[in-house]
Amino acid sequence: MTIMNVAVLGAGTMGAGIAQVAAQVGCSVVLFDISDDLAARGLGRVGAFLQKGVDRGKVTAEVRETVLGRIEAASDLASSVGKADLVVEAVPENLDLKRRILGDVAAAAPAHAILATNTSSLPISDIARGNEAAARIVGMHFFNPVPLMKLLELVVGGETADQTTATVRAFGERLGKEVITVRDAPGFASSRLGICLAMEAIRMVEQDVASAEDIDRAMMFGYGHPMGPLRLTDLVGCDVRMAIAEHLAEALDAPHFKPPALLRKLVEEGKLGKKTGQGFYAWE
């Protein structure tokens, strides 16, 4: 199956990015959120991201308008997924929420539609459990910002059909992504390694081993990472990374994933990183 019609559920930063890359390869995209205002804001995020490319001479104004013309903002779930070949949910990292949404999608989407979850840590098999479309459910873990980050982590659940995996892999490659396939284990590959590194970096700040800036510089210039673990935590969201760490600590019974007190303090104070203007760094 060639995927041409895509529905993205959740018009936040990740959802907007997924909608953009799908539209850039010629897909017709519906960007859904629970209200017209939120869906319109998501479309605005796509426009703003593309405008930066125009300002830098990397995207033409014509391309920007063409891509935006392929994306429709919507707030009715059933109609949003009614013609979809692929549905990607990009809602908050909550198991019950994801299960409920994909249950509703299975009842409204075409029988051939692939249902993907953008989870970064929740088990695909748990999300798909009891869903009549379990063979068509797969993990598509994109990375922020989606239009720029090359990796797509394809997570195969216990009931995911081989054809589902093959179709999504082909689509990921069409998006220009480097696609890796991982088993449905806690934290998959990327989150398990990334969260472990981030929690240790936070403990180092907590213990006054070095500043956040110098710890990040150590990983960037000593190990070739494009961004340090603390700055990345601010970019992803301190609250998001804490939730993933808590899940991994419990699922793997591994204390090194347990969120440090410093991370909990930042989250309690509402210092969530770039989205609030303050985390391990001050953001303008």
Give the CATH superfamily of the largest domain. Answer: NAD(P)-binding Rossmann-like Domain
Helicity level = 40-55%
* Uncertain stretches of 5 or more adjacent residues: none
Shape: globular
Give the count of helical stretches. Answer: 12
Percentage of β-strand residues:
5-15%
| Spatial sequence of strands, sheet with the most strands | 3-2-1-4-5-6-7-8
Return the string of H and E elements. Answer: EHEHHEHEHEHEEHEHHHHH
Model description:
- It is built from 12 helices and 8 strands.
- The chain has 284 residues and is α/β, with parallel strands linked by helices.
- It folds into 2 domains: 5-183, Rossmann fold, CATH 3.40.50.720; 195-268, N-(1-d-carboxylethyl)-l-norvaline Dehydrogenase, domain 2 (Orthogonal Bundle), CATH 1.10.1040.
- The protein has an 8-stranded mixed β-sheet with strand order 3-2-1-4-5-6-7-8, with helices on both faces.
Write the layout of secondary structure elements.
Layout: E1 5-9, H1 13-24, E2 28-32, H2 36-55, H3 61-69, E3 71-74, H4 77-81, E4 86-89, H5 95-108, E5 114-117, H6 124-128, E6 137-141, E7 151-156, H7 162-174, E8 178-183, H8 190-206, H9 212-223, H10 229-236, H11 238-251, H12 261-268
Parallel strand pairs: 1-2, 1-4, 2-3, 4-5, 5-6, 7-8
Antiparallel strand pairs: 6-7
Key phrases:
single chain, alpha/beta, eight-stranded mixed β-sheet, 12 helices
Short summary:
The chain has 284 residues and is of the alpha/beta class. The protein has twelve helices and eight strands. α1 packs across α2, α2 runs antiparallel to α3 and α8 crosses α11 (238-251).
